[in-house]
Amino acid sequence: MYQAEYLKHFIEEVFLAIGCSAEEAALASTVLISADLRGVDSHGIARLAGYVRLYDNGRLNPTPDVKVVYETPSTAVVDGDRGLGLVVAPKAMEIAMEKAEKVGSGWVSVRNSNHFGIAGYHAMLALQKDMIGWTMTNAAPLVTPTFSLDKLLGTNPLAVAVPAFEEPAFVADFASTAVAYGKFEILQRKGLPAPLGWAQDSEGNPTTDSNAVKSGGGLLPLGSDREHGSHKGYGLGAIVDIFSGVLSGANFGPWVPPFATAGFMSANEGVGLGTGHFLGAMRVDGFRPADEFKHDMDKWIRAFRGARAVEGKSVIIPGDPEREMEAIRSVEGISLLPPVVESLSELAKRFNIAFENRID
Amino acid sequence: MYQAEYLKHFIEEVFLAIGCSAEEAALASTVLISADLRGVDSHGIARLAGYVRLYDNGRLNPTPDVKVVYETPSTAVVDGDRGLGLVVAPKAMEIAMEKAEKVGSGWVSVRNSNHFGIAGYHAMLALQKDMIGWTMTNAAPLVTPTFSLDKLLGTNPLAVAVPAFEEPAFVADFASTAVAYGKFEILQRKGLPAPLGWAQDSEGNPTTDSNAVKSGGGLLPLGSDREHGSHKGYGLGAIVDIFSGVLSGANFGPWVPPFATAGFMSANEGVGLGTGHFLGAMRVDGFRPADEFKHDMDKWIRAFRGARAVEGKSVIIPGDPEREMEAIRSVEGISLLPPVVESLSELAKRFNIAFENRID
Question: Which portions of the sequence form the region Disordered (chains A, B) (predicted)?
Fold first, then answer.
C-alpha cells in the first residue's frame, strides 16, 4: 500500500526527469494520481510508463507552448503543441472558465494533445467556480460502430460535473462503449470469457472471447447491438469525436493515434494534429441565481438517492462511488498490482529516483 | 396515403381553431409534420389530438408570451408561458443562434413549455447558419435508473446536428433509453413480447412483458443492465434532465408532467414550471474556418460510410435514414394508421374542418 502523496511525488519526479517544468510536472502528477484516488486505476499511475514511452517515441513535447489559435468571446481552439494531455486539458479548461466568467459560457476544442487522464478531473475544475464543467476526448480506434467490421471510434468518454448546495456534486464520467477496454485486460489476465454484448469478433458476430479486440474484432458501443440501441452509443461516440477532433483540427475517427505506441500514425500520417479534446464551462448563474439552482440540484439528488431500489442495492448518484473511493484511499492509501510496481521500479532505476518496491 | 401539405394544412387549421396565431399555427404544423416526413411517426400528427387534450385540460396557452427571463451574452433562460413546445423550442433556438452570431455560441434552457415534437428538428435549425445545433428535453417519468424500482426519468432525448460540405449533415437524434416507448405500443397492439433488456418488471427483474411499464415496471436506460452500462444511459438521461429542468426552473426527474393527461401534476404540484428543454448553437467558425471544418466533416462521413460492414448491412451515418425517408415521403405521401385517421376525423368534426378519411 502506498500513500497518494508518495506516488504523486514519484510521478512528479519522473515528469521532471523527462524535461517538464516544475509547474507542469506538479499539475500532471495531480491529475494522474487523482485517477488512482478515485478508483479509476486504468487511467492513473499504471499509465506513467506509457507517457514516458510517448516521450521516447518523440510524440511528447515536455515544454509545450499551449496557446489559443482561434477564438470568439465564448469559443476557442487551443493547440497543445504535443504536450501532455494531463497539462493541456486543465489549461484549456482554464481558458473555457475565463470565457464563461465574461460571457456566461466557454467552449474550447483542443488539437495536438495526448491522453489526458480521467475526463472527470477536468470537468470538476468548473465546480469551484459554481460552473458546470464538460469534458470529452477522442481516442485510438477500438470500437466498431453498429454493423461496422472496422474499428472507427475510440472509447470516447464524456464527463459532466454539476455543483449542488449541501449534496456533493453530480459527476457523470463515462465511456461511450458498453464497457471500458480495461475490463477485457482483467479477464485476459485471468483467462476468463467476457459477457456477450461487450465485443464482436472479426466477422461482426457476438462473442465471449476476451481477446476479440486483439484478434480483429471490436469493442461494442453502449447499447451493445442494434436491438438494444447500439446506434445511440455509436452516435454519442461520434459526437465526442467530432467535437474533440473535427472542431479542433486534430485527428478523428480511425486516424486518432494510439496512446503511446512508437512509429504508428505520426502527425503527418493522420488527418490532423495529435489527439483532440473538448472542454466546456457554463456559469450556473448564467441561467438562474446560483443558490436557487444548487438547492434544486440537492432536491434532484435526494429524489434519486431516496428512490426505492432492488434488494441489496441503491440508486447511485453519478460521482458518488468515485468520491467515496477517494475518501477511503486518501487515508488508507493505494494498492498497486505487481506489473505496475515493476514498471515504476524500472522508471526509478532509469531516472535514478528513489522508489520503495512494496507489494502487500 | 396523404400528401404532407394536406396534413400540414389540417394541423394548422386545428391549431388556429384552439386560438393560436396564424404565425404560430404555421410554425407548429411545420414542426409536427416534419416528424411524419422523417419517419418518426410517434411524434407527428398522431399526437395532434394529444396537443388538443393539453389545451382542453387547461395546460396549454395558445397565445403565449415567450420571453427571456435571465441572460448573459451566451446563455439564457426562456419562459415558454405554457405555450406549445412546437413553437417555444424553435423560438428559443432563434435566441440561441442570435447569441452564437454575436459571441460564438448560445445556450438556452427553457421552462414552462410542453412537448416539443422531434428533437432533431430544432437542432437542424442551426445548420442553415453553419452552426452546430443541440437539443435536449425532459419528459414524464417512464425510466427506472440502474437498480431503481421507481420511474425517475423520461426518455430524455438528445439531438446534435453538424453541417458538412458536400455530404448531408450529421444529425444524431436519440432517446437515452434502450428503445423508445412507442416500440412497446406496437408490440402491445400485436400481443407480442418484448426482447429482454428493454424493460424491467415491478420488482426490477428483466422481463419480456410488453405491458411491463404499465404494470409498475419501467423502461431501461440505454445499456439495459449494469453489466452492459445502463448506468451510462442513466447518466445521459440525468444530464438531459438537469440541463432541461434544473437549469431552467422547470420540473425535473419524477415531477415532469405527462404529455397531455388531465389534472395530474399542475405547475403548483411540481417543483418548477412545466416541461424543460435545452437548446444550443455553436458557430463552426468560432473554432475553425467553416469550409475547413465542413470539408473535414465530409472526410469523417465518408470514412464511416465507406467502412467494411457485416453482410447485407452498411455503416449508417446518423440522420441518413430520416433524410432518406423524408425524400420518399415528400413525394409518395404519408400513410396513417386507422386510429390516427379516426382521431383526426374527430378533430375535423369538432372544429368543422374538412378532412378526407382515407385509409389505403
Answer: 199-224
Going by pLDDT thresholds of 50, 70 and 90, the confidence category of residue A264 is very low
* Residue B248 contacts A, CB cutoff 8 Å: yes
CATH class as words, domain A1-63+319-359: mainly alpha
Q: How many CA atoms lie within 13 A of A24 on its CB side?
A: 21
Q: Is A232 at the interface with chain B, CB within 8 A?
A: yes
Architecture in CATH for domain B64-178+220-289: 2-Layer Sandwich (3.30)
Number of Cβ within 10 Å of residue B263's Cβ equals 9
Decide if A315 and B147 are in contact by the 8 Å CB cutoff: yes
C-alpha cell at A192: 476468463
Using an 8 Å Cβ cutoff, are A68 and A47 in contact?
no
Q: Is the pTM of this model over 0.90?
A: yes
In this prediction, residues A196-221 reach a mean pLDDT of: 96
pLDDT at A234 over 90: yes
Strand partners, A172: A160
Per-chain mean pLDDT for chain B: 95
Exposure string for B265-295, b = 16+ CB within 10 A, e = fewer: bebeebbbbbbbbbbbbbbbbbbbebeebbb
Do A160 and B239 make contact, defined as CB atoms within 8 angstroms? Answer: yes
C-alpha cell at A41: 486505476
In whole angstroms, give the CA distance from residue B170 to residue B256.
30
- The answer to whether residue A202 neighbours chain B at the CB level (below 8 Å) is no
Q: How near does any CA of chain B get to the CA of A308, in Å?
A: 5
Are A202 and B308 spatial neighbours (Cβ–Cβ below 8 Å)? no
A283 inside 8 A of chain B by CB: yes
Which of A68, A69, A75 is best to mutate for the B interface (most B CBs within 10 A)? A75
Domain parsing of chain A, residue ranges: 1-63+319-359, 64-178+220-289
For the record, the C-alpha cell of A287 comes out as 441561467
Q: Give me the pLDDT at residue B268, please.
A: 57
pLDDT band, very low/low/confident/very high, at A360 (cuts 50, 70, 90): low
Task: Compute CA distances A271 → A32, A111, A242, A247, B339, whole Å.
Answer: 28, 11, 13, 13, 52
